[in-house]
Amino acid sequence: MSTPNPLSIAAHFDTLSDPRISRKTEHKLLDIIVIAISAVICHADDWVSIAEFGRAKETWFRQFLELPNGIPSHDTFNRVFARLSPQGFQRCFTSWVRSLSGAYAGLIAVDGKRLRRSHDRSQDKSAIHLVSAWAVDNALVLGQVKTDEKSNEITAIPQLLELLALEGCLVTLDAMGCQKPIAQKSIDQGGDYVLALKGNQSGLRDRVLTAFETAEEAAFKGYT
What φ, ψ does residue 146 adopt, rounded to 5°? Predict the structure, then answer.
């Protein structure tokens, strides 16, 4: 095979650890990942449809994948993805998304959402919350971190920002993200930030109002 194009999926996933026992594998990890991501982009939404997409496009995939034993079965896709490191996969996926969008800049909106019907009362499991970073200009999700409770967004947001190169970016967050560690992490990653501030942080709110009043009285001289 020729050296993969830097923009290809394989080029950004070749460092992902394979959790399988090598002597028992029939399909290469990169083949499985490339087929799965390509299928999902084309609206496949379960393992069966991913495998069907692979078989339908096998001739095309063979132009750049090895496929020593053809297209994996839907069970193989399921088993392999169930054993992959979520953090490792996310790092590789984020790297690939960056390559597609180039050196993304502009507005990065960070927000948390609860997944509908993700709770399981029989197992006493609460709903899943996802914290996502959305590149507004590129219309791309740059990364996501899962939390079990909305209150855990405060600790999840710095983990998400850690995955991103934010040079030239302005990070926006709602009032949940108005925390010193989150502001500092945005700076550490090379970005700037705009944080919403509500009245429940009354001490900080009063200091910010005073600072703006002082700046206005000075016609913002000496402020940048």
Answer: -90, 140
CA–CA separation, 90 vs 70, rounded Å?
A: 26
Q: CA dist 117 to 33, 126, 132, Å? A: 27, 10, 19
Q: Span 104-217: which CATH code?
A: 3.30.420.10
Report the candidate in 101, 92, 87 with the shortest Cα–Cα distance to residue 36: 92
Residue with tokens 């993805």: 81
Residues whose CB falls within 8 Å of the CB of residue 123, separated by 6 or more in sequence, listed in order: none
Q: Where are the domains of the chain?
A: 9-96, 104-217
Query: What are the strands of the beta sheet with 140-147, ordered from one edge?
Result: 140-147, 129-135, 106-114, 169-173, 192-195
Show Cβ contacts of residue 100 under 8 Å, excluding neighbours closer than 6 positions.
7, 140
User: Is the Cα torsion angle 191, 175, 180, 212 positive or negative in sign?
Assistant: positive
Please state the pTM of the whole predicted model: 0.62
Q: pLDDT tens for residues 61-90?
A: 999 899 999 999 999 999 999 999 988 998
Six token digits for residue 44: 């496949």
CA distances from 203 to 89, 183, 197, 212 (A): 41, 17, 11, 15
Nearest to 53 by CA among 78, 68, 73: 73
